[in-house]
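Handout, section B. The chain below has 227 residues.
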Amino acid sequence: MTARLPALTDVDDKPRRRPRRSAEQNRAEILRAATAEFATHGYAGGRITRIVKKANTNPRMIYEQFGSKSELYVATLESALGALRTEELTLDVEHLDPLEGLLKLFDFMNGHFERNLDLVSLLRAENLMKARYMKKSPRIHEMSSPVLSMTKRLLIRGVAEGRLATDIDPLRLYVMIAALSQFHLANVHTLSNEFDFDLKDPAWRAKRSADARRMLKAYLEQKSATA
């Protein structure tokens, strides 16, 4: 009697070992899962068990990499803000006309927040906690300084060239750009309900962005600014 050879399906059905991930890859997967978890449920509602499942890892690996839930949350904030800061600093704007450089910064921030709604949610939740966990990260403060310096240099050059108003504060300007880039995202559900209009509508968002850009341009170009 001829021995039966294993069918292809018999071979294919056998469980296959997943390729082993490096420590860096595992950390990146955990941070991705943690970002989604904390953005959806906040710090208090975030669960390590769900992060473990989404990251396809185990609790031991999370605690080895990050130490605790709170330290993982801080690392998540650092990662999300770090992505924004890294991209900001790669913007090639300082050779441009100062006005166009600052408008390009707005265009970038507006698009970044649109593409990274988890960051909007994380910032909103952290504000409710009065930046309790963000204060534990010196790295976040260090990341912000170069961006503010870049904004200041563009303003100084714009004033020297007679292109921009003379009394614009770099920090106030940056906060204004951030507000114009994310207020409609952070409050999309309440505003949509209040005015019975879906603020997620792409056409509406495109027009809002254009409006915000014109407002910013007019502010930067004003000649009789007040303190």
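Note. Residues 61 and 132 are 25 Å apart (CA to CA). Compare this with the example in section A.
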